[in-house]
Amino acid sequence: MNYLRATNLGEATALLARYPEALLLCGSTDAALQLRHAAATATLIDIHALEELKGVSVEDGHMRIGALVTLNELLRSDVVRASLPLLAACAETFGSHQIRNLATVGGNIANASPAADLTAALVALEATVTLASQEGERSVPLEAFYCGYKCTKLDHELITAVTVPLQTGEWYYRKAGMRERLNIAKVSIALTQGHGGFRISGASLGPSPVRFRTLEALLDGGVYDDAAIKEALESDTDPSGGHRSTKAYRLRVAFNMIKEALSQPEER
Amino acid sequence: MQITCTINGKVHRFDCAPESRVLDLVREAGMTSVKAGCGEGECGACSLFVNGRLVNACLLLAPQIQDAEVVTLEGLQEETAAIRESFAEHGAVQCGFCTPGFVLRAYDYLSHGGERSEEAIKAALDGNLCRCTGYRKIVEAIVKVKS
């Protein structure tokens, strides 16, 4: 296997242009398992030393979270806890302490798991993701970044940061799984209700994070009727009946969570 | 590839493939407190410190410890003495396989000023599994570590 280490962003994008099929190595929590279970990747590009991809900062009502920020850094950040409590609540349920010390925000986004809690929370928060290549940088709404199961629009690019508008108004985050901690979501729901109306998203309810636009429109219109909510949920989601649970279960739990979100939201 | 790092203060050099797991490297270097459990980051039996952060050695690849300071339970005998004594006193071990991981996590938690409540300790132990004890005695042992 070919191992290449990038020490700055320019080096990383040059290597990526040269080896477009390479696997990027940062926290390595997903990469280590992928390398064990899947066919050998020919090239590893190690980006874990890239300073440009570290740190959290706030400007103009937005938070910029570097792709290499770990889940524990996110969880412990005072500014994240104060300005994006939904994201902090989500990080709290992510993996375990040891995994949170390694796993990065960018890795979770790029890995594109349908069960990725962080990406569902970020979609509800209307995050945009910044991608860099040799041609320069571009920003894409996170929701539009996914194109199906484990499919992203990365095109010889790497994720440098995610930018999130600071949260206002009511919010809700909840995850259901087999056990309380170190859990892969059977269903997770993230909801915010600020000046722009409802923003609702979920994980494990489709091939990638799903934004519930029909449901949002319904609730924005003041309709809180159970049957209408159920119908909207069914049209917004496409849950699989995978080995972790059935489609009917996922829909039922999602419905219960939406009801709970509407009756007992957190407030910021 | 060549990897150089310190393990418990001593310089080690490995000639290994980039996809080698740190878990296997440190065990080959003689640090057998680092246990090969689930191999998927679920059980925490392979926990060790890399540059001061507790991580799963099974999820870490060789290049990640280049120039790093790796510390295992072997290198923290004095620092963990009170924790190990408390585990023994409270019978917080059965087969013992998970114990080094639990002791390191307890050390990590307490040395960062972790709260001594059962609830907080249970949450802090989210990365460590024990198949024997049922956790009650482990939690009790950590609550009662003499400081």
Secondary structure: elements and pairs:
The complex is a heterodimer of chains A (268) and B (147).
Chain A: E1 2-5, H1 9-18, E2 23-25, H2 31-37, E3 43-46, E4 56-59, E5 62-66, H3 71-76, H4 78-83, H5 85-92, H6 97-100, H7 105-111, H8 117-124, E6 128-133, E7 136-141, H9 142-145, E8 146-148, E9 151-152, E10 158-165, E11 170-176, E12 187-194, E13 197-203, E14 210-211, H10 213-220, H11 226-236, H12 247-263, E15 266-267
Parallel strand pairs in A: 1-3, 2-3
Antiparallel strand pairs in A: 4-5, 5-10, 6-7, 6-10, 8-9, 11-12, 11-15, 12-13, 13-14
Helix pairs in contact in A: 5-8, 10-11, 11-12
Chain B: E1 2-7, E2 10-15, H1 22-28, E3 47-50, E4 53-56, E5 69-71, H2 81-89, H3 99-111, H4 118-124, H5 136-143
Parallel strand pairs in B: 1-5
Antiparallel strand pairs in B: 1-2, 3-4, 3-5
Characterize the structure shown.
The complex is a heterodimer of chains A (268) and B (147). Helices cover 36% and strands 26% of the residues of chain A. In chain A, α5 (85-92) runs antiparallel to α8 (117-124), α10 (213-220) packs antiparallel against α11 (226-236) and α11 packs across α12. Chain A has helices spanning 9-18, 31-37, 71-76, 78-83, 85-92, 97-100, 105-111, 117-124, 142-145, 213-220, 226-236, 247-263, and strands spanning 2-5, 23-25, 43-46, 56-59, 62-66, 128-133, 136-141, 146-148, 151-152, 158-165, 170-176, 187-194, 197-203, 210-211, 266-267. In chain A, the strands form 4 sheets. Chain A has a 5-stranded antiparallel β-sheet. Chain A is built from 12 helices and 15 strands. Chain B is an alpha+beta fold. Chain B has a 5-stranded mixed β-sheet with strand order 2-1-5-3-4, with helices on both faces. In chain B, α2 packs across α5. Chain B is elongated and about 45 Å long. The model of chain B has no long low-confidence stretch (mean pLDDT 96).
